[in-house]
Amino acid sequence: MLILNRVPTTSRVLSCLAYLSILFLPVILPLIIWIADRQDRYVVRHAKLAFWSQIFPALYVLIALLMFFIMGASGVAQIRTAGGWIFGILTIIALLISLLLYIYNLAMAVGVLIKRQ
Fold first, then answer.
1. What is the overall mean pLDDT for the chain?
2. 27: phi > 0 → left, psi -120 to 50 → alpha, else beta; which?
3. Does 2 score more than 60 pLDDT?
4. Which residue, 93, 69, 95, is CA-closest to 83?
5. Contact 73, 14 (CB under 8 A)
């Protein structure tokens, strides 16, 4: 376990930036930080968490779109009608998950800066 009082300020700032990147460069910046700073376990741990919490909604939306296009391309009228409802429900779920992960990333960024994480 890492001792929080001994974590350098630069590690905290990089970890915070990994989480705050959801505002300006999601998925890409945590990946860059994760690859670039492999020596600092603290930064790597937070960059991984930020990366996975930011890529999950993107993967979910991609899967929902694929399901929608597959169902729409099937040509059956009932499936196309049901596909609209299914896509709407999946979209609402994706938006809720995205909102929760957005709040999570902001809370983790603050937690890293005030030495709670």
1. 84
2. left
3. no
4. 69
5. no
108, 50 Cβ separation under 8 angstroms: yes
Residue-wise pLDDT tens digits, 35-87: 999 999 999 999 999 999 999 887 887 887 787 777 666 665 655 666 667 77
Radius of gyration for the chain, computed over Cα atoms and rounded to the nearest angstrom = 19
Cα–Cα distance, 86 to 59 (Å, whole number): 17
Calpha distance 67→79 (Å, rounded)? 11
Task: Tell me which DSSP letter residue 90 carries.
Answer: H
Distance of CA 41 to the CA centre of its chain: 20
Question: CA dist 30 to 21, 65, 82, Å?
Answer: 7, 25, 38
